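FAQ

Q: What does a record look like?
A: Structure on top, sequence underneath. For example:
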């Protein structure tokens, strides 16, 4: 059995900060809607306080997490060890979207490296933290970060990224509102 925490303690912080990848899951309220699960990487995650975390959300072909958070706020983030001792941490909480055109974005962005491809920052107020064994998670070796996402963004430029968001990120696959700008 795992441990349930109400906030990020030193053990949770150490484990989470050591991971090179995490996963984000969200779902719409509609039982016929699509559950979304996305892998995240790069240097895009920050612990802002004992019950608050945030991550950079990059331009992409979908906008499910943003749409789900705008609708209902439910989110879970999962970190699992692919190297070293087996462990999994799940952070359950209520998330909100801070889009790049909002004033709060600039303040939050100072916690992250500059990525021209960031369309929003997802801020999560944690309501529950649960760790579990991770015995079934395979061992993988981290070889480095991929460079394609940032190269794609540079190639498109600021106006091209804005046009892309307007074309691809206005609505989720279930028709929920996505990015505003």
């Amino acid at each position: 059995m795992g441990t349930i925490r109400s906030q990020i303690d030193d053990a949770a912080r150490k484990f989470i900060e050591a991971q090179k990848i995490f996963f984000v899951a969200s779902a719409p309220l509609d039982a016929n809607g699509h559950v979304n699960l996305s892998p995240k990487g790069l240097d895009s995650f920050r612990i802002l306080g004992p019950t608050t975390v945030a991550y950079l959300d990059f331009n992409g072909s979908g906008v499910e997490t943003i749409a789900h958070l705008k609708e209902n706020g439910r989110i879970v983030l999962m970190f699992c060890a692919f190297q070293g001792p087996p462990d999994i941490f799940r952070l359950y909480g209520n998330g909100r979207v801070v889009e790049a055109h909002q004033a709060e974005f600039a303040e939050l962005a100072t916690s992250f490296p500059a990525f021209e491809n960031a369309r929003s920052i997802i801020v999560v107020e944690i309501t529950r933290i649960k760790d579990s064994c991770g015995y079934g998670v395979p061992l993988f070796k981290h070889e480095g970060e991929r460079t394609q996402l940032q190269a794609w963004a540079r190639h498109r430029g600021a106006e091209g990224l804005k046009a892309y968001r307007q074309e691809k990120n206005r609505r989720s696959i279930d028709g929920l509102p996505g990015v505003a700008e």
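Q: Is there anything notable about this one?
A: The chain is about 25% helix and 30% strand.
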